[in-house]
Amino acid sequence: MFLALFGVNVALVFLNPSIGRTALAITGDNVLEMLSFLPPIFVLLGLLDVWVDRETMMKYMGRGSGTRGMLLAFILGSAAAGPLYAAFPMAGVMMKKGASMLNVFIFIGAWSTTKIPLIMFETATLGFRFMALRLVFNLAGIFLIAFILEREVRRHPESLPEPRA
Amino acid sequence: MSTAALYMLTAMLLVISFRKDRKKTRQALKKAWKSFENILPQFLSILVLIGLMLAVLDRETITRLLGADSGAAGMAVAAAVGSVTLIPGFIAFPLAASLLSSGAGYGQTAMFLTTLMMVGLVTLPLETTFFGKRLAVMRNALAFVYAVVSSVVLGVIL
Fold first, then answer.
1. What is the ipTM of this complex?
2. B139 reaches A (C-beta below 8 A)
3. pLDDT of residue A101
4. How far is CA A106 from CA A15, A73, A146, B148, in A?
């Protein structure tokens, strides 16, 4: 898949040099950016996997962890750095260790929209009113979507793949 | 800045972990490397795809499509572009700010930002490997509907 896409891009350099080169340059920048934030995320993932055992994860973020578990998932997601695709492997470890799907999806939702540095940046570029309104809407959205998805998992537990990390 | 904080936190935890148990720490690092290695091809594919898309949809094109008086059509374009692509926030917000200053509505801008952050067609295959097809598709669809509703409301309020 990666090689095929890369091939398309290289072909484009010859067919349409301006777009092909721009695409390569953007990809290069993005790869560098990715390599700058991924190492700590994966080291944290490894540490989480080794040090936090299943019982602990289930106690704090499993089913029945209630408001505290939801809050913890939300804080963990908001404190993160990096785009959403970096959150999926982390969610994988949480699932493997027995976190409830509700909390996993709250974590994903928080990672996607309420990251603290991004909120500060949004206020600076788009103004407080815009940020605050979007934040209020997104908070409602994160929990709503997580509740719906959790219900879906309970109805169709077979749709969940084997946990992997 | 947040990346620096993340590095510091990780380094600190790593040192603590190493002091407590060398073997476990080595095991953690090995696991970190293995998951990184496993997922790297998928990450790279995503990045090449984003690079191709952004080369076609440059800043001027996006501004033109979502610009002044683009109305409902602008909303639709914002949703479509936002859902497919995945742009880091540090590029997305200045872009959104320039959209607003070039006359795009708040609704279009919010739509673009919200779908950009919550919906990712490009990352769907990766998401599927962790959550399964059904849940991954559902999460994206729900986020999409949610983005549309909240952006329309936000456009009316602001």
1. 0.84
2. yes
3. 95
4. 45, 6, 6, 20
- Tokens 């859902």 correspond to B83
Residue A63 to residues A99, A142, B27, B74: CA-CA distances in angstroms?
7, 18, 28, 42
- DSSP for chain A, please give it: -HHHHHHHHHHHHHHSHHHHHHHHHHHHHHHHHHHHHHHHHHHHHHHHHHHS-HHHHHHHHSTT-HHHHHHHHHHHHHT--S-GGGHHHHHHHHHHTT--HHHHHHHHHHHHH--HHHHHHHHHHH-HHHHHHHHHHHHHHHHHHHHHHHHHHHH-GGGSPPP--
Contact A59, B45 (CB under 8 A): no
**Residue A165 pLDDT more than 70?**
no
Instruction: Mutation target for B interface from A26, A90, A158: give the one with most B CBs within 10 A.
Output: A26
B-chain residues near A2 (CB < 8 A): 41-42, 44-45, 48
Query: Do A46 and B106 make contact, defined as CB atoms within 8 angstroms?
Result: no
Interchain CB contact of B36 with A (< 8 Å) = yes
| 3-class secondary structure, B67 | coil
| B contacts of A126 (beta carbons < 8 Å) | 93, 96-97, 100, 109
CB pairs under 8 A between A and B: 219
Is some CB atom of chain A closer than 8 A to the CB atom of B88?
Answer: yes
pLDDT, tens digit, 9 for 90 and up, residues A60-109? 999 989 999 999 999 999 987 778 888 999 999 999 999 999 999 999 99
Q: What's the token pair of residue A40?
A: 């700590």
The distance of Cα A18 from the centroid of its chain, to the nearest Å, equals 33
pLDDT at A71: 95
CA dist A122 → A15, A115, B28, B107 (Å): 38, 10, 35, 16
In the DSSP assignment, the letter for residue B70 is -
